[in-house]
Amino acid sequence: MGPAFVTGGERTGVVVQMRLDSSRLPGKALLPIGGTCLAGMVMRRLRGIDADEYVLATDAAGASALGEAARDAGFSVFAGPKDDVLARYAMAIEAFSLSRVVRATGDNPFVSATLAEAALSVAREAGADYVGLVGMPVGMGVEAVLAGALLKAAREARDAFDREHVCPYLYRNPGLFSVLRPECPEGYFLPGGRVTVDTRADFDRALAIVSEYGAAPSDEEVLSWVRAERKGG
After folding, report:
1. How far apart are CA 5 and CA 13, in angstroms?
2. What CATH number does the domain containing 180 carry?
3. DSSP-derived 3-state class of residue 8
């Protein structure tokens, strides 16, 4: 296992990647939900994470269409390459002088700030380059990554998959990076659960959760919904 890429005084940024096109659910970022749009709900939720910067990392079209929602949520907007998302993250890291990144995606309106803080705590305590909790419902987690490790990945990764999905180069190369995948806290452990939005059925589920619990459901309310859904209602 390689050494962690540690920088000086920590400057943490929540960086959420989004763009407008989606093959399974076109235009999903702009779909109305929770008194805003899906993108706005994701960013509103991410504001619960303690950080120095909050950044929407998108492409030119996304910056134009999602800028208002980002500003309403207290996010800065950064436009970078459309398909090379790893390069987009590297550019955002340099633009905002970040030393650690909470990587989030625009699919997750029920992302958990508590789980994000848990991942950050593990990362800081262990000095890890990468921490991604496992076992919680898909759509509630984030990844905590040292900026130096992402910059190294951006310099070295050649595979298109690594560049589109940002972090695989790190955890596919454990000899180069310090990678931890700890189990999530017990109360969140619901493997196979799902609250991400990738399809119309996923979005309908999100709408149902908001209808049941309001625009800002607690983690426990989201988890209760998942448990009930798994039992058949």
Report:
1. 16
2. 3.90.550.10
3. coil
